[in-house]
Amino acid sequence: MADVDETLKRIESHKGVIGTILVNGDGIPVRTTLDNSTTSQYARLLRSFTALASSAVRDVDPQNDLTFVRIRSKKHEIMVAPENNNLLIVIQNPCE
Amino acid sequence: MPVYNNNAAAQGKKGSDVHKGAGAKVPKASIKKKDEEALDVAEGADERTNVKANMKPANQVQLTEAELKEEITRVLTANNPHAPQNIVRYSFKERSYKSTSVVDHLAVHFVLEGSLLHKDSEEARRLRIRDGLCKEPAPTENKAESEEDHAETPATPVEDRGEGEEAGEEERPDSAASRPDKKQAKITNQFNFSERASQSHNNPSRDRSCQTEPPQRVTFSATANQWEIYDAYLEELQKQEKSKEKQKTTLLKKDDKSKKKMTQVETQGDDLTKVRMVSKIMERMVIQNIMDDIAQDFKYYEDPSDEYRDPEGTLLPLWTFHYDQVRNLSVTALSWNNKYQDLFAVGLGSYDFSKQEGGMLLLYTLKNPAFPEYIYSTDSGVLCLDIHPQHSHLVAVGLYDGCVAVYNLKKKPHPVYKSTAKTGKHTDPVWQVRWQNDDLDNNHIFYSVSSDSRVVSWTLVKNELIFTDIIRLSVNGGVSDGPDGAQLSNISRGTSFDFHKQIDYLFLVGTEEGKIHKCSKTYSSQFLETYDAHSMPVDAVKWNHFHPDIFISCSSDWTVKIWDHTVKTPLFIYDLGTAVGDVAWSPYSSTVLAAVTTDRKVHVFDLNINKHEPLCQQPVVAKKKTKLTHIEFNPIHPIIIVGDDRGDVTSLKLSPNLRKKPKSKKGQEQPKGSEAEVAKMDKLLSLLKEPELSTV
User: Where do the WD repeat units fall (chain B) (predicted)?
Assistant: First the structure.
């Protein structure tokens, strides 16, 4: 568990990372580096988005599953990694 | 009445019987009849009472004498003036309204119904009979009558509605049966029949209702997708399998209990453990984003300037692998993983005899250059390591204090195996370890060479390491006399070794004295061959990946030498200017090799292109004082990793010139893989031998 904690801390401290949110199975943000309103907004929106993406992937081939979703927008990049209903969301500004 | 007269006069012919009474007053009224005003009626009546005085009212119509004497006839008829004269009836026959002239002129003024009955009518006869009966028993009759009355009155109102007199008559004969022939049925008539009704009190109705709380409504929605169906089927399948297993393992109840405990513990785990995998993936993605250009270069960049710089090539620096806690240590060993070709192991320790601190074993992956995947620390410096070619989770490590250890990356307690003083550990640092094929019992074996002049094979049997001395290295194979008469065995210290790729028992050992011995696993005391290689300890000796006869050696005496094991003298000698730390053959070509020197340069040679000069000589590390210690080629990617004495590993990409494959002539088929390489080498060698022959 400690190494997971370390990994998350490292992610948070990497260059360009704006924020990190860890959402548990009930949709409640467990760990975050952003403010409350932004966190809950991201958690809520990305949860349904990830469910939709996963449904799309699995609908085509049920043995397949979603591992990672990246949304590249003008300002930054939102990365979502799902696992067992948990979500790890990282918002990064790739330096260019 | 005078009004009616006026009407009659207007009609001219009609009157009524009633008016006969009024006819007496006609003469007076005749005067009045001339009055046409209705208001005069009241005044006329008043005048009549006053009598005698003939007063002319003010508004009397003034008539002339002739008009006054005019005679007006009045006729009394028997017509009813009230009878309607304009009755119109609809005739269905003619389908139109027709006026009927037949009108009834009878006016009824008064009706009184009498109670007289004709004596011969039925009613009268009945009454007579009854009266006849009643006459004889007078006093008792009254009582009976009264009783009957009482009996009747409750009966009659009940029966009155439906049945009327008939029901009453029926009852009466019944009641009269007790008094036969005396009584007649009582007839209800309007005098002694009374209907009595009573209404019970209606209870006021009151609404009473009770409302419970409705059950909570929850909207439920679901989708039926391909994957939901698939998941449902999988669950079913798993349930079936579990039930089958339970049937089979009913005896092993203890195991089940322990399994249950296991599952409980797992579910109690913290949230963070669930995201372990995901956080790893995420970290890699984040770093890939940050180092996006490097990743792109790694994959796709081919130096275009190579076309102009033929035959020279360059090395493009990619990632640098740095771990903060290893600043004082130098890289002492590098090894790529065969199965996961982005994973490599770094052994860290110290070459300095005086500065011996702990050591570390790190495993990095190219996917995450920022942080090692696995970190193990050891008591003493790691000097060498080897990853098992087939079981890539086993890592053999040789330490400075002479111990060898085996780490199992999958299992927790580290290291899994470790040799101790009792179990035959070396008395001097272990310089090289190599995995070999499994023995007959399918136990894993690895070999180690150390400065204590032993080459030892270690077998992993269950939880232990069992060692077997393979060979004792000694100079001259014998014992020489020392100064005090004590017998000194002239041992030579091994510093490196390598096993032949194809021939299992054949291996080479490089020693501190600079000699290379060709040995066999089966002969424990004698060498097959000895080569006088270098003047300083042989740092590395490596067989060629393709050609079975060629091997390379490097030493701190600044030279790199290429040998054919059948020939005692080296085929090629390269002087690199400073002490050579390590040399490596490339896995993709039999003629490409790379060497690192302490002046932080990497030298890449391709014998096929240029036998004497390196294709590339490039410093790869920034700081001037760092020495490069080890080099390894990646099995599939065109990358080399270079370790230095600061604990960093630099990865570099080989430019296209350095990875050239021999051009095939048109029409010739390109032979594949190792055969081509062997052929290439052979060609080289043949070229070599010819000038040798010619000079000789």
Answer: 531-564
Q: What is the pTM for the complete model shown? A: 0.62
Q: With beta carbons under 8 A apart, name residues in chain A contacting B279.
A: 4, 7-8, 11, 81, 88
Cα-only R_g, chain A: 14
Residue A66, C-beta contacts closer than 8 angstroms, at least 6 positions apart: A50, A53, A54, A57, A58, A82
What are the tokens at A3?
A: 């190494």
User: How many CA atoms lie within 13 Å of B159's alpha carbon, on the beta-carbon side?
Assistant: 19
**Owning domain of residue B478:** 295-660+677-684
Closest partner residue to A68 among B225, B273, B285, by Cβ?
Answer: B285
Complete DSSP assignment for B448-486: EEETTSEEEEEEEETTEEEEEEEEE-EEEEEEEE-TTSP
First to last CA, chain A: 34
- Is the model's pLDDT at A43 over the cut of 90? yes
Asked whether residue B475 carries a pLDDT value surpassing 90, the answer given is no
For residue B352, being part of any structural domain is answered with: yes
Q: At residue B226, what are phi and psi to the nearest 5 degrees? A: -55, -45
CA–CA separation, B560 and B558 (whole Å):
7
Angle value at C-alpha B130, between B127 and B135, nearest 5 degrees: 125
Q: Pick from B278, B283, B370: which is nearest to A83 by CB?
A: B278
Confidence of residue B145 (pLDDT cuts 50, 70, 90): very low
Q: What is the pLDDT of residues B521-553, one digit of tens each?
A: 887 777 888 888 888 888 888 888 888 888 889
Number of folded domains that form chain B: 1
Q: Residue B585: inside a domain, yes or no?
A: yes
